[in-house]
Design goal:
alpha/beta, nine-stranded mixed sheet, Rossmann fold, 11 helices, 300 residues, globular
Length: 300
């Protein structure tokens, strides 16, 4: 049985490994709870603060690479495909948000990472807040880019319409990156994961976070309420949230506006004031809300 499992793992990895890497980051495999998990990792700097990037619904980590690569010289970077997504193998049963958070912490265990900051997009954001809820000692800081999964995205037909509208607002290249991932993920998994995502108490968990938390949203994101409404929700209670808005960005900010997002993340990680990216002709960046418990910005 062991030899058969090893052969199947070898065949899966060979089948899911293209000839040409999609990134300068090293492409690697590991095994988590009997499932082959594909991930990318920066070679340097090995002793820097760790940063892990988590992808969205139906996707792999590939579309996160534009931002991850810009930060890889400053942070020891990991970009895994969670079980059931991208090149990684599927678990025996469909995974929900707590299951994916468990898989993420098992990935960190396998890599010997005791603590990490985590950058997520869309579905990756609920996974992060669940990770921080269950394993708070493992999270240094949280970056939630275009959080998804609340009442704004229900029912499924509404979410499909929002995704279709967003598709017209993203760079054309995003289609070529996302389409193979969606096809591989499949229709049955889509229905199961959508139900798990929309039933998860994302907002409650987010407001309960005890670590500095950066929320980034775009003004043209059809999957989220408008920036003013989001600001009103955060302002109802004291919290650790810093809300930053990218004027003109849609949902997949990690792919469409990597330079602006990487700039904001750097400023956030060092508790510096949020400013526009110098020399950028892209989206304007501005701070919309800073919670009472979020660190005070210090300009230096």
């Amino acid at each position: 049985m062991v030899k058969n499992a090893e052969k199947e793992s070898y065949r899966h990895r060979a089948r899911m490994t293209p000839r040409k890497p999609a990134s300068a980051l090293a492409e690697r495999w590991t095994m988590i709870d009997g499932v082959d998990v594909f991930y990318r990792e920066s070679a340097n700097p090995p002793d820097a603060r760790v940063m892990t990037h988590l992808h969205g619904f139906g996707l792999s980590g590939r579309y996160l690479l534009p931002t991850a690569e810009l930060l890889a010289d400053e942070f020891h970077t990991y970009v895994p495909d969670l079980p059931g997504f991208g090149r990684s193998g599927k678990a025996g049963a469909a995974l929900d948000i707590p299951d994916l958070a468990h898989a993420a912490v098992r990935f960190l265990d396998e890599r010997g990472v005791e603590k990490t900051s985590v950058v997520g997009n869309s579905m990756g954001c609920p996974v992060i807040v669940e990770l921080a809820h269950r394993y708070p000692e493992r999270i240094e800081r949280a970056v939630l880019v275009s959080p998804a999964g609340g009442i704004q995205n229900q029912p499924l037909r509404r979410a499909i319409g929002q995704l279709a509208k967003d598709g017209g607002r993203e760079p054309r290249k995003m289609i070529t990156v996302a389409t193979p991932d969606y096809l591989r993920f499949g229709v049955p998994s889509t229905f199961k994961m959508f139900n798990a995502l929309t039933q998860y108490p994302s907002l409650q968990r987010l407001l309960e976070l005890k670590v500095p938390t950066l929320v980034v949203m775009g003004t043209k994101d059809p999957l989220m309420p408008g920036p003013e409404r989001v600001k009103q929700v955060f302002a109802q209670d004291q919290n650790h949230v810093l809300l930053v808005v990218l004027d003109g960005a849609a949902h997949a900010i990690n792919f469409s506006h990597p330079r602006e997002l990487a700039h904001v993340i750097r400023r956030f990680m060092d508790d510096k004031p949020i400013t526009d990216l110098p020399g950028s002709a892209g989206a304007r960046v501005f701070e919309s809300f800073r919670g009472a418990y979020h660190p005070v910005a210090v300009d230096s």
